[in-house]
Structures are given as structure tokens and as C-alpha cells.
Write a structure and sequence with these properties.
Helix content: 25-40%
Largest sheet: 4 strands, mixed
Distance between the termini: 12 Å
Number of strands: 4
Strand content: 5-15%
Shape: globular
Structural class: alpha+beta
Strand order of the largest sheet: 2-1-3-4
Length: about 80
């Protein structure tokens, strides 16, 4: 759970990442973006993901991976853990 302060034209927001489990190859091939804000869907290895994400989102992703590994929720403020 990441609280993001107001920025640009946007008010503050809560950003969440959910563990969607494992997606097999046939299901992955069928996935397509359905939102006008999304132009593509990419499956990337963990190490590659950091170079694909802006720093704030990379920190959020890193926290989510840590949460999956130890089963504990992470709380962030602008991508930075608060405890």
C-alpha cells in the first residue's frame, strides 16, 4: 500500500499491488490492455523490471516483492517504506 502525495494535476492517491499468482503461457499470451491509459503489457524478469520502471514505481515494486517473500504487508509513502 503506497500513499502518494498530490502531484501535478492529481490529488493524493492510494496505490496497491496485489499478488495475482502464477500465469501460465497460454493465459499470458491472451492478456491485452483494456484501459486507454495502457498501451502495452510486458512480462519482465525481476532484474529487468527495475530498468523499466521510474524510481518511485521501482521502489513500490521492490516492496511488493519483499512482501510476497515474507508474507507481510508493506506500507509506503511516495514509494518509501514508513516502517
Amino acid at each position: 500500500m503506497d500513499w502518494v502525495e498530490p502531484h501535478g494535476p492529481w490529488d493524493d492517491q492510494l496505490a496497491c499491488i496485489f499478488d495475482g499468482g502464477v500465469v501460465d503461457d497460454s493465459r499470458a499470451a491472451a492478456l491485452r490492455p483494456h484501459d486507454e491509459e495502457l498501451s502495452e503489457l510486458v512480462f519482465a524478469a525481476y532484474d529487468e523490471s527495475r530498468s523499466l520502471l521510474p524510481p518511485r514505481l521501482a521502489r513500490r515494486f521492490e516492496a511488493a516483492v519483499e512482501a510476497v517473500s515474507d508474507g507481510r504487508m508493506r506500507y509506503l509513502r511516495n514509494g518509501i517504506p514508513i516502517w
